[in-house]
Amino acid sequence: MTPRPTPSQTIGPFYGYALPFPDGGRVAPARHPDTLTVYGYVYDGDGVPVPDALLETWQAAPDGSLAGRPGSLRRDPVTGGFLGRNGVDFTGFARVATDADGHWAVRTLAPPADRPYLSVCVFARGLTHHLFTRAYLAAPDSDTLLSALPEARRATLITHQEGERLHRFDIRLQGEKETVFLDFDSFDGRDTSGR
């Protein structure tokens, strides 16, 4: 009888091996004058940086469109390898791995004022299911999700602006300052970070 894989074997950490692609964090077209950077670190429950996490972000285009443009995962028809982005289109999608220090960064365009956030999905070692959250670039006057959370929990979803076009968003997977994570299967507006 052949032993079956255990969850730790199938969960990873393998995310940095096959899923990232060239320029995965460059959502904005090359040299676009309105490019901004959202960056941060992923921390585990002990506050230690996670060096092998993978993040995906989705967002509305500045004009409010949710369709995005195809092209994030273009393949080279000759080699079959990834070509990356074409450098012209705004796709609204990013996929980046954390580095050895748990750092990640996405270069994008600001989403519209009525949806001022990036949707974020986190894959990391030890997680049996990926986690969903939001990175708000600004706290809107009215937002169903934010208004349903206590102020201290709400703060875990808002980026810290560090410059005109620079926002920091750290993700804490557990602990006292754990980021609020969303459960889309049964979302009712309550904080589900206690899992």
Q: Give the N-terminus to C-terminus distance in angstroms.
A: 36 Å
Rg value = 17 Å
Q: Structural class given helices, strands, pairing?
A: mainly beta
Biggest sheet descriptor: 5 strands, mixed
Quaternary arrangement of the chains shown? single chain
* DSSP summary, beta strand count: 11
> Helices and strands, in N-to-C order?
HHEEEEEEEEHHEEE
Instruction: Report helical residue fraction.
Output: under 10%
Q: Count of helical segments?
A: 4
Low-confidence stretches: 187-195
Q: Shape from CA axes?
A: globular
- Beta-strand percentage? 25-35%
- Chain-averaged pLDDT: 84
What does this structure look like?
It is a single chain. This protein is mainly beta and 195 residues long. It is 9% helix and 26% strand. The protein is built from four helices and eleven strands. The protein has helices spanning 7-11, 15-18, 144-147, 151-154, and strands at residues 36-43, 54-58, 74-75, 82-84, 93-97, 103-108, 117-123, 131-136, 160-163, 166-168, 171-172. A hairpin with a 6-residue loop joins strand 3 and strand 4. The radius of gyration is 17 Å and the shape is globular. Mean pLDDT is 84; it is low at 187-195.
